[in-house]
Write a structure and sequence with these properties.
alpha+beta; five-stranded antiparallel β-sheet; three-stranded antiparallel β-sheet; about 20% strand
Length: about 230
Amino acid sequence: MREILGRRRRLGRRGGSARLDAALTCATEWQWPVVPGVGLRGAGDRDRRCACPDPECAVPGAHPFDPGLLAATTEARMVRWWWMNRPAAPVLLATGGRAPCALSLPAVAGARALAGLDRAGLRSGPVVATPTRWALLVAPYTLERLGELLYAQDWVPSSLRFHGEGGYVVLPPSEIGTGQVRWERAPERATGPRREHAAAAPWLPDVGVVLDALVEASTSAPDGGSRLAH
């Protein structure tokens, strides 16, 4: 029994260290503002629930609480302090501004959409996968730009969610109520003339290119339905 408990403690420490390392990479190398998520409580898988006060929380573990989203930072000292005190906390990326934004879909639809991008010869950026949803990270966009893009579309799948200014995305190697968060497509460093402005920042595609590809993939279903519905 002691050996089992000791093994669990060691795994917990390694998991906490991995989250701290991931948060520091995002904040200091990529200049992506991060904040710890509320996390989970409870011992067994069936007993695990959101650590926030809401017993009916719709996104257990996968949202900010204390501190709130506005506290997101790229400052290394603050990031270390947060995850040294809460090593199991999920890593949340505050989207918008100069940080990446994202488009997310249900997991099955996300896999189809990514395959559609590949078939079209379009390069995808980082893709975050949870057991229920996938998020495709894109270059920062404004609400005005997003509005123009959506207005230009005849139809947009209702399963799409947009994570821009004031939003967030859970990053690997976090664990949330639905399970483990992982990279389906790992971040790749940017290359070319802009690299000196963000030395190690991952490359991100334009939101317009990704949105067009997702809508095309959805409306091209053989039965006239949507490939991105679920």
